Amino acid sequence: MLDHGSFSLHIKGEAGTGKTTLALELVNLLSHKGETYYLSTRVSPSRLYEQFPWVKETMPPAKILDAKRETTRPQKLTPYSFEYTEQPDFLQALYSKIKEAKVFPVTIILDSLTALKANLNLAEDRLNVETVLLEICEKTNSNLILVAETGEPSRLDYLVGGVIRLERKIIDQRILRELIIEKIRGVKINNPCYLFTLSGGRFTCLEGKTETNMVFTQIPQPVTLTGNKIPTSIELMDRLLGGGFEKGSLNILEINRNVGIKYL
User: Fold this and answer.
1) Cβ atoms within 10 Å of 100's Cβ, excluding its own
2) How far lies 241's CA from each of 55, 134, 252, 259, in Å?
3) pLDDT tens, 166-222?
4) Looking at the chain, which runs of residues are DSSP E strands?
């Protein structure tokens, strides 16, 4: 879909879920499929290179635009500065950048929408800047990827073509990262959930279908007490125990951490 233009994607999640890493991976993925620009509204390009050294190999500075709002006008603007003071200035600068492109489609990744609206003193619940951004990309046949610093549902989800939510959970003192595809317009989503890792500063999805919730596929039959044994309702375990647990006994089951959810 991103190969043809006019597609919009909303990436959202709380702090530390991996949104910026995913956005940079998308820049890397799309770098050979047209012009791709990464607009950083929070950190400078030099800081991004420090945090993600692998970015230097695939993305030149011209692809990473500094879209932070300066409190004072800089003495000297660099070719990678994205100067603006009000919403019209930002939108005009973005439109000019798209029109200057020599290879199409153009993909604009805005990281983050939340910071941009704070810089422009715009209310979080108003969609005026998002609506204009979507209109610009539709008229220029460009792609738009918006990164938001919240995982909550929003009205923007109804306007864009796709919605991806990132989650970070701590289970048994370990971090579990999950990518959830909430919406891809015109595409059937067979598996909406994928586990991923940020090891080495890269966004890597783990192969295979993920199962993060316990599902009981069979309801145990009522236990029938016979003799001095209490059946467990699990045929293999009953055979190992000689028919079940001894009446009045204390039994301790140790479950290894690597045992799958189905076995639990």
Assistant:
1) 9
2) 58, 65, 13, 20
3) 999 988 788 899 999 999 998 888 889 999 999 989 999 987 545 544 344 455 555
4) 8-13, 35-40, 64-66, 106-111, 143-148, 162-171, 174-184, 193-197, 204-205, 229-230, 245-246
* β-pair type (162-171, 174-184): antiparallel
Question: Residue 162 pairs with which residues in a beta bridge?
Answer: 9, 184
Half-sphere exposure of 8 toward its Cβ, with a 13 Å CA cutoff? 19
Q: For residues 222 and 245, what is the distance between their CA atoms, to the nearest angstrom?
A: 15
Helix (H) or strand (E) holding 110: strand 106-111
User: What is the C-alpha to C-alpha distance for residues 170 and 154, in angstroms, rounded to an integer?
Assistant: 25
Give φ, ψ of 134 to 5 degrees: -65, -40
Report pLDDT digits (tens) over 119-139: 888 888 889 899 999 999 999
Listed ranges 27-31, 103-107, 128-132; the one with the highest mean pLDDT? 128-132
CA angle 125/115/174 to nearest 5° reads 100
> Which band of pLDDT confidence, cut at 50, 70 and 90, is reported for residue 259?
low
Please state, in angstroms and rounded to a whole number, the distance separating the CA atoms of residues 32 and 8: 19
| C-alpha to C-alpha distance for 92 and 208, rounded to whole angstroms | 44
Could you give the C-alpha distances from 233 to 155, 227, 237, in angstroms and in order? 49, 16, 8
Q: What is the DSSP letter of 226?
A: B
Least confident of 39-48, 99-108, 251-260: 251-260
- Cα gap 18→59, rounded to integer Å: 19
Identify the residue with better confidence: 232 or 138.
Answer: 138
| Amino acid of residue 147 | V
Type of residue numbered 216: F
3-class secondary-structure state, position 195: strand
pTM for this structure?
0.73
